[in-house]
Amino acid sequence: MRLTVADFEAEARAVLDPVHYDFFAGAAGDESTRQANETAFDRLRLLPRILRGNDKRDLGVSLFGRALSMPVAIAPTAFHRLAHPDGELATTRAAAEASTLMIVAMAATTTLEQIAEEARKYATDGDPALWFQLYLQPDLAFTESLIRRAEGAGYQALVVTVDSPVFGRRERDHRNGFRDLPPGLRCENLVGDELGPGGSGSGVRDIVMDATMTWERIDWLRAITRLPILLKGALHPEDARLAVRHGVDGLLVSNHGGRQLDGVAATIEALPAVVAAVAGRIPVLLDGGVRRGTDVVRALALGAVAVAVGRPVLWGLAVGGAAGVGEVLELFRDDVDRALALCGAAGPRDVDAGLLGPAPAGPLSR
Amino acid sequence: MRLTVADFEAEARAVLDPVHYDFFAGAAGDESTRQANETAFDRLRLLPRILRGNDKRDLGVSLFGRALSMPVAIAPTAFHRLAHPDGELATTRAAAEASTLMIVAMAATTTLEQIAEEARKYATDGDPALWFQLYLQPDLAFTESLIRRAEGAGYQALVVTVDSPVFGRRERDHRNGFRDLPPGLRCENLVGDELGPGGSGSGVRDIVMDATMTWERIDWLRAITRLPILLKGALHPEDARLAVRHGVDGLLVSNHGGRQLDGVAATIEALPAVVAAVAGRIPVLLDGGVRRGTDVVRALALGAVAVAVGRPVLWGLAVGGAAGVGEVLELFRDDVDRALALCGAAGPRDVDAGLLGPAPAGPLSR
Amino acid sequence: MRLTVADFEAEARAVLDPVHYDFFAGAAGDESTRQANETAFDRLRLLPRILRGNDKRDLGVSLFGRALSMPVAIAPTAFHRLAHPDGELATTRAAAEASTLMIVAMAATTTLEQIAEEARKYATDGDPALWFQLYLQPDLAFTESLIRRAEGAGYQALVVTVDSPVFGRRERDHRNGFRDLPPGLRCENLVGDELGPGGSGSGVRDIVMDATMTWERIDWLRAITRLPILLKGALHPEDARLAVRHGVDGLLVSNHGGRQLDGVAATIEALPAVVAAVAGRIPVLLDGGVRRGTDVVRALALGAVAVAVGRPVLWGLAVGGAAGVGEVLELFRDDVDRALALCGAAGPRDVDAGLLGPAPAGPLSR
Amino acid sequence: MRLTVADFEAEARAVLDPVHYDFFAGAAGDESTRQANETAFDRLRLLPRILRGNDKRDLGVSLFGRALSMPVAIAPTAFHRLAHPDGELATTRAAAEASTLMIVAMAATTTLEQIAEEARKYATDGDPALWFQLYLQPDLAFTESLIRRAEGAGYQALVVTVDSPVFGRRERDHRNGFRDLPPGLRCENLVGDELGPGGSGSGVRDIVMDATMTWERIDWLRAITRLPILLKGALHPEDARLAVRHGVDGLLVSNHGGRQLDGVAATIEALPAVVAAVAGRIPVLLDGGVRRGTDVVRALALGAVAVAVGRPVLWGLAVGGAAGVGEVLELFRDDVDRALALCGAAGPRDVDAGLLGPAPAGPLSR
Fold it and tell me: What pairing do the DSSP bridges indicate for beta strands C250-253 and C229-232?
């Protein structure tokens, strides 16, 4: 029975190639950060309000002037066709049907144009919320071409991953010998004739993790596009301040699901200092370990405008394609709605730190 | 051997239909709040006093001018006939014989009038302590009729559950497919001819979880009855203050046994701020996780006037009807008495925060 | 191999009747206090000193003008003949040979006179350190007669247990049906012709847990004897202050090995406030959970003059009579000596709170 | 697959005599300090910096004017030939090839001269970083002769172990009956004709743990050698201050891998106060529980200049001789490099306490 994200994960695990399951589920090192992302939520105990009369909740949030039906977006994750033959087309359809945001990954196994087209097909108003996640590539011409493609395809914001100067070391993948996509799958956004340095013989460009990147690259990006720019992976309050100074439009507090550096703070632990640092000047989102409606409420209570979910979407995708992703999104919607109702909130705007009670003195097992 | 509440639970589990056991034992979501209710007590370590000469303890407490023989009442729980054929009649008899308070649930499988009559039959002085718990229904005429019935039947206070604008999601029940009472059982207080909207075809009105409810409904209630009004489920100190302002007579700090919203603070963790907020103007009770006499002492030490126990009573009911409930109540009485004696206290009034030692730095397993 | 107290316990468990093992090992309620007594030590991390040149340690401490060879005494425990046929005679011989203190229990299965005689036989200087533990009985004439016997037999202090206004509830004993000593064993100090009220038909007086007792009884005791008086079981700093005011000569911080009230603070957690309250005016000892030389050092660091060990001695007794107890005592001596040496201390006097490092942020499993 | 130190340990365990494995893996008492050394790192959560442009990391650190290729040295450990026939020659070769520091143990099973000669053979520049660890022996003439040998052989610093006035009690060794090196192995640095008191009949001098040692011995050492002197095992900030005052040149914060006194603070917990005490006047290193590149970063963040690893090197040695040690060192290099990169640091100098986030409220399992 699919009552919880854990149910979806169990089903997905049963249908996926174990090596691919490990790719999605695994993380760097001892995976302590992956685990902490989830358990850190549990330590924040809620103190609901009563008699607020909010029988009609509105889960909607607004991001850069665009309305989402709920504060739960789809986080960018790679290789959706590894989870299900329909891949990103299924995911984007589910997001569009749910009227929520999909952040499309540069490492999609479908082109960003096809994804956007599919989203438009299923969006209730034909205008789906779509952001494009990318690693800024040292080949600036290529990077710019990608951005122009995203702009052209109707993406409404760019999410620049900044926590990956080098690849994280995911031991499950090493143990499994998982390196390449199986035949027939490739990073479709990176296929091209004119391959710069680093391109493989297969006609597909490799994604370069560029450790030379500095804030100047953000300035360059700022200069060449009018799309809102978000940074994904800024966890340090000092970097949050720098982001504001460099004209960044939003932050996605993320530790890459624990997949880059094990030992990093859980995102919900890092959130408060980031929120304090930006002081309301730009919106802050969060991903990492969000599994329950109450996790969403906790993130909102600590100042996030919305959250994004990655692995849960992949489990839904694996078990049921677009319908499966849709089920997961409706599970979250239902769970957030119930959590808001039971906290006495009419919607995300009613949620603040007053809903959080005293931290327990000791540990709580989940 | 029935030495502890856990013994009663084990026996009850053996005799109950597993689906019904899960209904009683289960809670919302991951059940972390249900678990925290119990473990949070353990983190409060006692520092007994010595040589107080209290060989004669008086466990009695007074609530709204009425004496209870001990600070342990029966919390309102639904469907007692699901636990035992004698249902609420057994529970109320045990409470009356023990000279303690029974809070009768609106969702009883026996009418409130029959329950009160049975209680009068067994109360040592013919005047049993009885409160009536209800969900204020949007059909105010019906709600008022219920209140008049409770007044007429001799109930001495109304306990309004305010933590349930919507139903909590109890996953065990979903997995078990438990939805309806078995044939022959129904919410007897809700049977009637003139069924308003929401009534089912069976002639039994459904209980409406009313998310439109605000403090105005409390004001309405305040205006139509002279019975003391308590709110069950106020956990936030701000709501405690509002309750005082709206003429509420008492608070039952409760998280519905973890059955409404998982992730909510343990009641013993929420208690101190509520007690501080009401500042002695109205009495504060607590339910949730009370399993030992020392738990009762801890709640008293943090400012509760009395506690209520729910699941333990159901286990007693399941294993032995009225006699089983009586055993559970006497177990608590004996355990509270011993705990008071060993703390050097002559009774509940001797218990204050001075009995609590330093919190341990780390966790204590139970 | 008998390297640790745990080794002795395992061997003892193998040779003892399981019911008797449970009587010695068990404690009240959930036994969380029994467990906390041990684990609370682990949370105190040591910061040794170096280059102190203390190749010759002197473990000796002085209590009321009498030298002990080490700061580890034998705590009073009942029924030694239940552990080994030689009973208290074996225990006292081992203590005398080790030149340390034995606190003889009122509930000994050997008379206090025989114990003292045996101790004198084996004490290196013929003058063994012996204290007598008692529950002050409501029959004052009998209590005084006991005290006169202890004085006459050469006991040098009285240890009055004050944490037992009523019996604790030890669930293992209830489950095992353990109530009476087996035939042939009895509380030999309580045998007499003129049995007051409460005496059983067997010619043996029952020990009365007297909840009427107040500080006046301590004043009475103070008036009738010149022996130093210690209170066993004072945990609250306010009671420590009262003890000083009532002329008490020392405190044994104890929670009765967790056997009276479960949920009470670990003794090492309660110690600092007691030490602060008496402010050096009277010596403070501790029992409860001491299993390693480093536990002794931690107690000394927090202000105890010495510690007492109960269960470890019983395990030694069970496995080897006097020789077994001797082994346990020498194990402690060796372990304390090594711990002192490795902390850079020449003896107990060198140990203070400076040896304790920062508390770890989270838990440490043992 | 050898991805982690744990992998090497598992392989080593499979090839080593279990008794020898226990000798290397075990520690004193309950081994809680050994365990805490590792788990205490996990509680320090990282907050990486972004967009620092550090594509070229330089892991090098300088110690007493000598460059190491990375901040990970080989801690002194005894009996390398017990782990592998090539013994210390293999270890030193790997260290030399990795251009990092080896701290040679006095209890080596190869002479310090042979070790130094082997190191020179494999050092890229013929000038390997070598320090000599010793226990100052009460036979000062012998101690001085050892120091002259170390000076003559080109060792660049002396590491004086000061946490061992007596031997720690390692229960695994006692249970295994492990006392002597097997035939053919001996402490080669201690072989000599003129054996002073304490020499065994075998022509090999025993290492004396000298509890008489005071700071005067350090002064003596200071007077007879111009080599930098480090103390290994100073954990208390007061001793750190004394070390500076006595002309000590550096500290290696160590608890002997938990092998001396169980219950001692984890080294990463003790580090901050030691760093604060020396206030930058002398460099501070750390060993104990370092298993991951992120552990190295955490130690640097709290003020260590470099760390040393002991057991991981022994596991590498056991599984593959010099090549195995080399693999372990390169594993650390790679892991530190990745951790630095992902923290946005160009090298050890970029690492400070700003990289550490808020401590989690509760425990994190590894």
Answer: parallel
